[in-house]
Specification:
It is built from 14 helices and 22 strands. By secondary structure, it is α+β, with helices and mostly antiparallel strands. The structure holds adenosine-5'-diphosphate (ADP) (2 copies) and magnesium ion.
Length: 454
C-alpha cells in the first residue's frame, strides 16, 4: 500500500511561464506555493502567484536556479512538503530528486532511479533496444576513437549526428556531412559535453533526412498504473528546438498511435516510471519511427495534450506525488479535436534568431473559447538575457485541424508584444503556407519552406 500524503505546500524550483502555470494549479487545489528567484527575477510576474518567495542568488543559472544546496535549504526553511521542478534547470537531476525525497518531501516527478537511467541518452538507447523499441541506426554505445566513429558512419551512411549522451534542449547535437570533419567534431563535442553536461560521452546516429519529431506522453502512478496520452508532433523547429507543437499528428493513424503508445509504455514500464514523461521519436518520410530519448518531466508542450483531453497534467502530477491513483485509466482518455501550441520567444528570426531581451512596453493577449495563453511576462516586466528566450505560449483548440488553424490565425492577430522582437510574425508565416495546411511537416520546414537561417 502506498500511503496517501497530500502536498500542502509546494516549492516551485523554476521561473517564468512554467512557474506561474504550476502555481495556478497548485492554488486551485488549495496548495500553498513557494517561489524561488534570482536577482534578475526579483520583480518577475510569476512571483505574484507565490505565497512565499526565497532568493537564490545572482542571475547566472549556476549561481541560482541550479544551486541545489540553496533550493534544498529553501525547502527546509519554508517547510514545503513538495517540490515541483518544472522543465529545464534541475528537473532531470536524479541527485536532486533523491535529496528532496531524502528530506521526507514529495518529489513531483518520476523515481530518481528512472530519472538517472533515462538521463543518459546512451543508457536509454540500451533500455529501448532491450525492449524492442526501434532505434535510430547508430553506435551501440559511446564512441571514443575516430576509428570507431568512422566505422559506424560508414555502416549507417552520412550525414550522421554526433550527440552528447547527457545533452538536452537541442544543445550537444552536431550534424556531420562527411568524413573530413568527423574527427574534429568528435573531439569538440566530447569536450563541450564534459563542460556543459559533466559527461564527456558522445555517440553517433544516422541523420534522418527531413524527419518529423513525434513524441508520446506517458503518465504513471505509484500503484503500478501506466497510461499513454497519445502523441504530439513537434516538427516545426529551429536549431533542433521546438517552435510549434500539435496533437494529434496529421500523419499518425489509430494503428500507428497504438504501436507508438505501446513502445513508449514498454520503455516506461522497464524503468518503473511514475508521473509525467515523454518518449521522443523521429519519423522518416515513410512513417517509420525511431526512439530518440525520454524526457523525465513535464514537457513545454504538455498544454496541447491537456486541451484535447480536457485534463490538467500538473494536477495529475501533484495528485500522483501525493500517493493518489491516476485520475483516469487508458480507456477513459479520449482526445477531442485538435490543439496547436506556438512558442512565443524574445528573439529575432530575421537575425538568425538572436535573443532580444528588453523591457516589454505593451502586451495584449488574445482570449476566447479554445484560446489559452500561458505567459510569464506582462507589460511593464523585463526579459533579461540570462535564461531561455521563451516568454509564453499561445495554445488553441479547435474541433479539427483546420478549425484550430483558423482560431490560431485570429489569436495571433490579437497577440501584441511591443518593446522586444518576437517570433509572432514567423508563426503567421507558417500558418500562411500550403505545406502547413496540408500537414506536410518536417524539422527542415523553417529553413526549406520559409528560408529562415540560424
Ligand atoms: P521540451 O522537450 O519540453 O520541449 P526542450 O528539450 O525544448 O523541452 O527543453 C525544455 C527547456 O529545458 C528549454 O528551456 C531548454 O533550453 C531546457 N533544457 C532542457 N535540457 C537541458 C539541458 N540538458 N541543458 C540545458 N538546458 C536544457
Ligand atoms: P535534445 O535532448 O536536445 O532534445 P534530441 O535527441 O531529442 O535531443 O533531438 C532534438 C532534435 O534534434 C530532434 O527533435 C530532431 O529535430 C533533431 N534530431 C535528433 N536526432 C536526429 C537524427 N538522428 N536525425 C535527424 N534529426 C535528429
Ligand atoms: Mg529531445
Amino acid at each position: 500500500m502506498i500511503p496517501r500524503k497530500p502536498i500542502t505546500k509546494l516549492l516551485i524550483a523554476n521561473r517564468g511561464e512554467i512557474a506561474l502555470r504550476i502555481a495556478k494549479t497548485a492554488r486551485r487545489m488549495g496548495i500553498k506555493t513557494v517561489g524561488v528567484y534570482s536577482d534578475a527575477d526579483s520583480e518577475a510576474l510569476y512571483l505574484n502567484y507565490m505565497d512565499e518567495k526565497v532568493r537564490l542568488g545572482p542571475p547566472p543559472p549556476r549561481e541560482s536556479y541550479l544551486q541545489i544546496e540553496k533550493i534544498l535549504a529553501a525547502v527546509e526553511e519554508t517547510k514545503a512538503d513538495g517540490v515541483h521542478p518544472g522543465y529545464g534547470f534541475i528537473s532531470e537531476n536524479a541527485d536532486f530528486a533523491m535529496r528532496v525525497a531524502g528530506q521526507g518531501v514529495s518529489w513531483v516527478g518520476p523515481p530518481p532511479d528512472a530519472v538517472r537511467k533515462m538521463g543518459s541518452k546512451i543508457g536509454s538507447r540500451d533500455i529501448a533496444r532491450a525492449h524492442g523499441v526501434p532505434l535510430v541506426p547508430g553506435s551501440d554505445g559511446a564512441v571514443k576513437t575516430f576509428e570507431e566513429a568512422k566505422a559506424v558512419a560508414d555502416r549507417v551512411g552520412y550525414p550522421v549526428m554526433v550527440k552528447a549522451s547527457g545533452g538536452g534542449g537541442g544543445i550537444g547535437l552536431v550534424r556531420v556531412e562527411d568524413e573530413s570533419t568527423l574527427a574534429r567534431t568528435l573531439e569538440d563535442a566530447s569536450k563541450k559535453a564534459a563542460t556543459f553536461f559533466g559527461d564527456p560521452s558522445v555517440f553517433i546516429e544516422k541523420y534522418i533526412l527531413r524527419p518529423r519529431h513525434i513524441e508520446v506522453q506517458v503518465f504513471g502512478d505509484k500503484h503500478g498504473q501506466l497510461v499513454h496520452m497519445g502523441e504530439r508532433e513537434c516538427s516545426i523547429q529551429r536549431r533542433n528546438q521546438k517552435v510549434i507543437e500539435e496533437t494529434p499528428s496529421p500523419i499518425v493513424t489509430a494503428e500507428k498511435r497504438k504501436e507508438m503508445g505501446d513502445a513508449a509504455l514498454r520503455l516506461a514500464k522497464a524503468v518503473g516510471y511514475t508521473s509525467s514523461g515523454t518518449v521522443e521519436f523521429v519519423a522518416d518520410q515513410q512513417g517509420n519511427f525511431y526512439f530518440l530519448e525520454m524526457n523525465t518531466r513535464l514537457q513545454v508542450e504538455h498544454t496541447v495534450t491537456e486541451m484535447v483531453l480536457g485534463q490538467d497534467l500538473v494536477e495529475w502530477q501533484l495528485r500522483v506525488a501525493g500517493g493518489e491513483e491516476l485520475p483516469l485509466g487508458q480507456s477513459a482518455l479520449q482526445a477531442k479535436g485538435h490543439a496547436i501550441q506556438f512558442r512565443i520567444c524574445a528573439e529575432d528570426p530575421e537575425k538568425r534568431f538572436a535573443p532580444s531581451p528588453g523591457a516589454i512596453e505593451k502586451m495584449e493577449l488574445p482570449a476566447g473559447e479554445g484560446v489559452r495563453c500561458d505567459f510569464g511576462f506582462a507589460a511593464g516586466t523585463k526579459v533579461t538575457p540570462y535564461y531561455d528566450s521563451l516568454i509564453g505560449k499561445l495554445v488553441v483548440h479547435g474541433k479539427d485541424r483546420q478549425d484550430a488553424i483558423e482560431k490560431a490565425k485570429h489569436a495571433l492577430n490579437g497577440l501584441v508584444v511591443v518593446g522586444i522582437k518576437t517570433n509572432i510574425e514567423l508563426h503567421k508565416k507558417v500558418l500562411a503556407t500550403e505545406q502547413f495546411l496540408r500537414g506536410e511537416l518536417s524539422t527542415a520546414f523553417l529553413s526549406e519552406v520559409l528560408q529562415y537561417k540560424w
